[in-house]
Each structure stands twice: as structure tokens, then as C-alpha cells.
Amino acid sequence: MKTKRADSHHQCIVCAAPEQNPASLDLLFTQMRAQQVQARFMVDQRYQGYQGVLHGGIAATLLDAAMTQCLVAQGIEAMTASLDVRFHMPIAIGSRLTVIGRQLAQKRNIYLMEAELVANGLCYASAKAKFMLPKQPKVAP
Ligand SMILES: CCCCCCCC(=O)SCCNC(=O)CCNC(=O)[C@H](O)C(C)(C)COP(=O)(O)OP(=O)(O)OC[C@H]1O[C@@H](n2cnc3c(N)ncnc32)[C@H](O)[C@@H]1OP(=O)(O)O
């Protein structure tokens, strides 16, 4: 089952349709089981930092997006409150990544999440994060 593109972020840098945002990474997440989603991402040279290696900020963005989409798939539109990323190995340009996000737990209004970037059965980067529902409107006026 594909996760529907949410109206709340239809121009999102990660998951918007290209006609909505030409710079979008165009990730489409699939719900794999309860509280877990995944998407495929081809690491092309537009996304490099050091020569031949995926930029860490893009890797962190993919991890954040997977956890966001895991919640969105459950109808929860929460904000990233904290994000802890581990870069285990450099990710080469040309890699075909599986981007996985899952929910670990919920404590009061805090969702504890984790995500992984996997290729060829190896985890290249992982993250743990806390997501919270905003009390106030999501953006400053
Ligand atoms: C593919 C789709 C991609 C879509 C986008 C991906 C997700 C994003 O990028 S979201 C954008 C980045 N994130 C943000 O801009 C978030 C900005 N921050 C906020 O909006 C708010 O600070 C928010 C919602 C996190 C918390 O707001 P609010 O509930 O008002 O917090 P606040 O009143 O300060 O704290 C409430 C409680 O939570 C606790 N708390 C706040 N932050 C944290 C945290 N990181 N960890 C643990 N506890 C926390 C506080 O200590 C407090 O505890 P208590 O009630 O016991 O005193």
C-alpha cells in the first residue's frame, strides 16, 4: 500500500510530486506493516558532498522523512523535536538505498522513532528521533 502524499506538505522537498516541487527527492513511501514504512532512493551525483559520497545532510533528511512518513501513515502529523543520526559508513554515489522508518514507542505526546538507510543488507546510517504534536500553529506568521 502506497502512503498518500499528504496535503499538509504537498510541496515537500522530500516527497512532493515533481510537478509540485521540481527540487523534490520524489520519495514514495509504502507501509510495510503497522508502524513501519519504507521507500527506495537512488543516490545520484546531485546529492554528493565529498566527491563520490552522499552528503550527510541529505542522508539525515531521508532518515527524518522516513520517520515522519511512518507517523503520517497513521494520520499523525507531528514535528521533529530531536534527531540523533549515526553515519556508520560512507554511502557511495550510485547506491540504491532502502529508507526505512518505524515507530518504537509513544510516551504521552512524544513519539519515539527510528530509521535506517540500508543497501545490500548493510545499514549505512541510522537515526533515533522524538516527534511531537505542535500545540501552536506549525509555522511562525
Ligand atoms: C517527508 C515529509 C517531511 C516533512 C517534514 C519532516 C519533519 C520536519 O522537518 S518538522 C520541522 C522541524 N521541526 C520543527 O520545526 C519543530 C520546532 N519545534 C516545535 O514546533 C515545538 O518545540 C515542539 C512541537 C517540538 C514542541 O512544542 P511544545 O509542545 O510547545 O513544547 P514545550 O511546551 O516546549 O514542551 C512540552 C513538553 O515536551 C518536552 N519536550 C520538548 N521537546 C522535547 C524533546 N526534543 N525531547 C523530549 N522532550 C521534549 C518539554 O520538556 C515539555 O515537557 P513537560 O511538559 O514535562 O514540561
Automatic annotation (TrEMBL):
NCBIfam families according to UniProt: unchar_dom_1
Taxonomic lineage from the root: Bacteria, Pseudomonadati, Pseudomonadota, Gammaproteobacteria, Alteromonadales
Catalytic activity: tetradecanoyl-CoA + H2O = tetradecanoate + CoA + H(+); decanoyl-CoA + H2O = decanoate + CoA + H(+); hexadecanoyl-CoA + H2O = hexadecanoate + CoA + H(+); (5Z,8Z,11Z,14Z)-eicosatetraenoyl-CoA + H2O = (5Z,8Z,11Z,14Z)-eicosatetraenoate + CoA + H(+)
Protein name, per record: Acyl-coenzyme A thioesterase THEM4
EC number(s) per entry: 3.1.2.2
Keywords of this entry: Apoptosis, Cell membrane, Cell projection, Cytoplasm, Fatty acid metabolism, Hydrolase, Lipid metabolism, Membrane, Transit peptide
Enzyme class: hydrolase
Pfam families: 4HBT
Broad class of the protein's primary localization: membrane
Topology relative to the membrane: Peripheral membrane protein
Family listed: Belongs to the THEM4/THEM5 thioesterase family.
Subcellular location: Cell projection, Ruffle membrane; Cytoplasm; Membrane
Domain Thioesterase: from-to ranges: 51-119
